[in-house]
Amino acid sequence: MPNNFHILIDRHVLGNKAYNLTKMKIAGLPIPEGFVILFNETPSIKEIINWYNTYIVKGSVSVRSSSNKEDGETKSGAGFYKTKLNIPLQRIQIAIKIVRQQADKEGKIPVIIQQYIHAMLSGVAYSINPKNGMDDIYMEYGHGPCDDVVAGRIIPKSLVVKKNEVCHHKEIPHKLVEYIIQLELLFGMPVDVEWCIDHSGKIWILQCRPITVIPSQCYQYA
User: Fold this and answer.
1) How far is CA 25 from CA 21, 29, 31, 151, 214, in A?
2) 53-71 residue pLDDT tens
3) pTM
């Protein structure tokens, strides 16, 4: 059976993205359910259906790469690897092939299959303000899927939140701020977090990576 974010095995086996998701899941953070197909696994459609029914149960999925060259502590690799979103069960196997073909020069890479969250609001949060290096949370967000914000398909709203103050913003719950602070402590460094809020109001952490370029102005991480 594949890893379903409950056992933290070697980073080089899981790939950085899946390693980070597993770390968050074990810490009790709200990440979408799913599993990791390891680099040496080429599952049949029957196996994929079985794993889907075991770990996800219903709905469409996100299919993401988990290369050791992305989402690391020294290099993010953001935007260089394919992600397939809102994929129905019958097309998961094809999506896996597409994601792996794009990274063909590396050989086979781990692939993450996760429940796709239909977002009401989503965005990116930084646990350090990338504009000035201050120790504040900076967010860019908008209505709809997080991919629209990340890919620049919409003009996002922005918000700066002090870590030691309660967030009273009408669209951003304070619980999200608490999760960002928890993630920075978990990873031991400033982080870049993709998040969303579904139509029931539940917050989901979609992925988290260390911030690899930190503005030098007035910031030192203890």
Assistant:
1) 6, 5, 6, 26, 26
2) 999 999 999 999 998 876 5
3) 0.89
